[in-house]
Design a protein that fits this description.
single chain, alpha+beta, Alpha-D-Glucose-1,6-Bisphosphate, Chain A, domain 4, five-stranded antiparallel β-sheet, 27% helix, 29% strand, START-like_dom_sf, SRPBCC domain-containing protein
């Protein structure tokens, strides 16, 4: 488990006020935080508005102690998220690394929303499962070698193209032209001492796709994903 306090820094080509507004306007937060889920609004309220503190300038501390700072940077702004110290909230310690990985995803989604689709709504598809396979989804999809400004690949029965948006130790984010200039984030953590079953995740952020197109895309991804990264077994309550 992580012992050092992680710091996540993302540079955004947008003014400080625009970035700060995206952290303080509930509807705008829905344009980038997480993915479509019945609990999304409750999660937004908990993290950004329930007992959090806003300090002078552009600093927000969430109820669990995560601290966001938005400051001017060359060409725009940068967001610095300093995680709450490990052990500050024992109820969440078991999920500490998972939450850190989630924030890496979310802050790059924030950057994508502000730089590429300011003010626009989105639709999302989300998949997760255990990572018992020897390779992550980016490798299995032939996307682990995507580098530079452009890539082309056949992904789950669809020819896609775009550019590499970000890379981190466990994640890769790719823009997808065919999804209305959408974003694909793939994550993989191999089985290990801290996470014996490993973990895999995919978040598809979509723009300008009709309901039928989105449904068909979701069906293809679900069929591909479910046979490779199944959901963890449910505990036996007998």
């Amino acid at each position: 488990m992580s012992k050092e306090t992680p710091e996540i820094v993302v540079v955004v080509a947008a003014p400080v006020d625009a970035v700060w507004d995206a952290l303080r306007d509930k509807e705008k937060i829905r344009h980038w935080h997480g993915w479509e889920d019945p609990q999304l609004d409750a999660e937004i309220d908990l993290i950004y508005f329930s007992d959090g503190t806003v300090e002078d300038g552009h600093t927000l501390t969430s109820p669990n102690g995560d601290r966001f700072v938005v400051e001017p940077w060359e060409g725009g702004s940068r967001v610095i998220l300093t995680r709450a110290a490990y052990g500050a909230n024992p109820d969440w310690d078991a999920y500490y690394d998972d939450i850190t990985e989630g924030w890496i995803t979310f802050l790059h989604q924030l950057r994508f929303a502000l730089e590429r689709h300011p003010g626009a709504g989105r639709r999302t598809l989300f998949y997760s499962g255990i990572g018992v396979r020897s390779a992550g989804p980016a490798e299995l999809l032939g996307l682990d070698g995507a580098v530079g400004s452009e890539y082309r690949a056949d992904v789950v029965g669809e020819a896609v193209s775009g550019s590499v948006w970000f890379r981190s130790e466990h994640q890769v984010g790719l823009t997808v032209d065919q999804w209305g200039d959408g974003l694909l984030v793939l994550s993989y953590i191999a089985p290990g001492e801290e996470k014996p079953s490993g973990a895999a995740m995919a978040v598809l952020t979509l723009y300008d796709l009709g309901d039928n197109e989105r449904e068909q895309l979701g069906e293809r991804w679900q069929a591909w994903w479910s046979t490779r990264y199944p959901a963890p077994p449910q505990p036996d309550n007998d």
